[in-house]
Amino acid sequence: MTTDQTTSNRFMDNLRSLGPGLLVAAAFLGPGTITTASTAGADHGFQLLWALVFGIAAAMVLQEMSARLGVVTREGLGEALRTTYDAPAMKATAAVLVISAIGVGGAAFEAGNITGAAIGVESIFPVSQQLWVLVVSAVAAGLLWSGVYRAIERALIGLVVVMSVVFLVTAVIVRPDVGALFAGFVPTMPPGALLTVVALVGTTVVPYNLFLHASSIKEKWDESVPTDRALAGGRFDTGFSIGLGGLITLAVLTTAAAAFFGAGTSISDAGTMAQQLEPLLGPAARYFFALGLLAAGISSAITAPLASAYAICGVLGWSQDLKATRFRAVWAVTLLIGAVFALLGGSPVQAIVFAQATNGVLLPIVAAFLLVVMNRSDLLGDHANNVRANILGGIVVLVAAGLGIASLIDVAGTITGG
After folding, report:
1. Does 7 have pLDDT greater than 80?
2. Euclidean distance between CA atoms 102 and 123, whole angstroms
3. How confident is the model over 286-318, as pLDDT tens digits?
4. How large is the average pLDDT for residues 183-210?
5. CATH number at residue 239
6. What pLDDT is attached to residue 112?
């Protein structure tokens, strides 16, 4: 076999490896990511680019661990956690913390998904946003209950991909200030930017994706596939997919910075955000952006309750069958709470950014539990974390925890008037 043939075969093998990582990338490329990156670019230009880069790197580190766990153990993170602690008190504490983090984070993320889809369709059909919240919630619930969402999800993800390509092309057309772009890699904290920083991290490293990835990757490579081959495929899938998702998020931030930064424009609705795409699409930008935001919102509104159900049922040892009563109850509660938050929310853009920030605050809890599981040599054998993986994972936990604590102090100070 020639060198060209070997390279071609390796390339085709890599393409066939894609799947679970793309699902994770599609899950975080929802309205929350688009809105948060747009807000960051509009308000601060490229100054918060470093936070986005940290989020992408953290996602690669943690999602690789999640994928490795699924391939080696054939278990999800929830199931692995259930067998990690022997003492009943520790087992109960771990379960409560994970359920709280995934429950609160999933519901907050769901509120952002539903709100994002609603403001997208509202920009075309200017009826009450609350009405569209109810419609989007009902559509997501119907698709989840029927089980036919998988076929529809492909079409929705296809629309998200098209929108992503448009953002990438527009980011090139607007010719961003390269000097300001590279300066954004240096960590800075402009006044009032802390919540946006935490949101940029929380919208990229989504806690429930760590459960979703481990559960989905074991279906991609069954037990007949050699472990080393499955791990290599999983690493390529994770790196490529998260990297692509990060590049698209960077493109969103870039177009927003070019369109709004320094112009005094406040992003308050989908119509304003759509102006980012006018250099490429002109007057059609509003309609294209609304359709993309609706597709991203509905696809993510399906994924978030599902991931929450997988995580919570795994931790509690309940059936993860899509038609199981408890499984359906968990996703239904997540969807219901998200819908209520979306209905009660004030400014839709602020509500979405706050939802992503909530995930950023809860991230260290889930990431710390993942690190504990990944150091179990009795479960993972030679594939348990090495020193390098623990150092990288530890850095992610410490930085995320520091940002989360700082944001809580900031919010508390605002509430008390300090």
Report:
1. no
2. 31
3. 888 888 888 888 878 888 888 888 888 888 888
4. 88
5. 1.20.1740.10
6. 82
Q: What is the 3-state secondary structure (H, E, C) of the chain?
A: CCHHHHHHHHHHHHHHHCCHHHHHHHHHCCHHHHHHHHHHHHHHCCCCHHHHHHHHHHHHHHHHHHHHHHHHHCCCHHHHHHCCCCCHHHHHHHHHHHHHHHHHHHHHHHHHHHHHHHHHHHCCCCCCHHHHHHHHHHHHHHHHHHCCHHHHHHHHHHHHHHHHHHHHHHHHHCCCCHHHHHHCCCCCCCCCCHHHHHHHHHHHCCHHHHHHHHHHHHHHCCCCCCHHHHHHHHHHHHHHHHHHHHHHHHHHHHHHHHHHCCCCCCCCCHHHHHHHHHHHHHHHHHHHHHHHHHHHHHHHHHHHHHHHHHHHHHHHCCCCCCCCHHHHHHHHHHHHHHHHHHHHCCCHHHHHHHHHHHHHHHHHHHHHHHHHHHCCHHHHHHHCCCHHHHHHHHHHHHHHHHHHHHHHHHHHHHHHCC
Vertex 384 angle, CA 362 and 370, to 5°: 10
Who's near 392: CB < 8 A, 6+ residues apart? Answer: 61
More confident residue, 358 or 334: 334
pLDDT for residue 99: 83
CB-based contacts of 340: which residues, under 8 Å, 6+ apart?
none
Q: Give residue-wise pLDDT tens across range 143-164.
A: 888 876 666 666 666 767 777 8
Q: For residue 378, what pLDDT is reported? A: 92
Question: Quick one: pLDDT band at residue 277, thresholds 50, 70, 90?
Answer: confident
Beta-carbon contacts of 165 under 8 Å, excluding residues fewer than 6 positions away, are none
Residue span of the structural domain in which 124 resides: 3-416
Q: How far is CA 223 from CA 19, 187, 218, 220, 236, in A?
A: 17, 44, 8, 10, 19
CA angle 62, 333, 32 (to 5 degrees): 50
Residue 49: what pLDDT? Answer: 94
User: Model confidence over 325-351: pLDDT tens digits?
Assistant: 999 999 999 999 989 988 886 666 777
Q: Which pTM was predicted?
A: 0.85
For the chain, how many structural domains are there in total?
1
